[in-house]
Amino acid sequence: MKQVFYSTSQEETVHFAEKMGSLLKPSDVILLEGDLGAGKTTFTKGLAKGLGIDKVIKSPTFTIVREYKNGRLPLYHMDVYRLEEASIDELGLFEYFDAGGVSVVEWAHFIASELPDTYLKLTIKRAGDEEREIILESYGARYDQLLAEVINDDSWN
């Protein structure tokens, strides 16, 4: 299933992601793609808010994984941009997918062959200074359901 959401501001992107975060379940996997500065970490801030995480969310570019465990579910925020040549097995990233939290993976195409079979993929594209086009693609029944819930929830409008 594929849907597109248009955001006109950072605040709207955060609010949309917050609604999604409130619907996430243990072991959900969200993949984020988009150019540098497109809003992947901004989106993750909203997801964290929806999970009840009150910590400052920072990009994991240099640490590879940032863990946030003070919400209703743990959040594992990964940035695999620099891992083209590495295996997630070697780095222990695979363990996060089954750890009962929510895994958010930025630049996931670099480790595509190592990812779970089911996930929700978001591609964030600039559509202006503040505007973003967010393309949501679900892979698997769990994510078809999640996507339907997110898109049909008009309380964020």
From TrEMBL:
Per its UniProt entry, which superkingdom is the organism in? Answer: Bacteria
This protein's UniProt keywords: ATP-binding, Cytoplasm, Hydrolase, Magnesium, Metal-binding, Nucleotide-binding, tRNA processing
InterPro entries from the UniProt entry: P-loop_NTPase, T6A_TsaE
Cited Gene3D superfamilies: P-loop containing nucleotide triphosphate hydrolases
Q: Where in the cell is it found?
A: Cytoplasm
Q: Which SUPFAM superfamilies match?
A: P-loop containing nucleoside triphosphate hydrolases
Q: Name one GO molecular function term.
A: hydrolase activity
Q: Biological process GO annotation list?
A: tRNA threonylcarbamoyladenosine modification
The protein's matches in Pfam families, at most eight in alphabetical order, are given as:
TsaE (PF02367)
Q: Does Oxidoreductase appear among the keywords?
A: no
What do the Gene Ontology cellular component annotations say? cytoplasm
Record-linked PANTHER family: TRNA THREONYLCARBAMOYLADENOSINE BIOSYNTHESIS PROTEIN TSAE (PTHR33540)
The family classification in the record reads: Belongs to the TsaE family.
Its name, as the record gives it, is tRNA threonylcarbamoyladenosine biosynthesis protein TsaE
Originating species:
Listeria aquatica FSL S10-1188
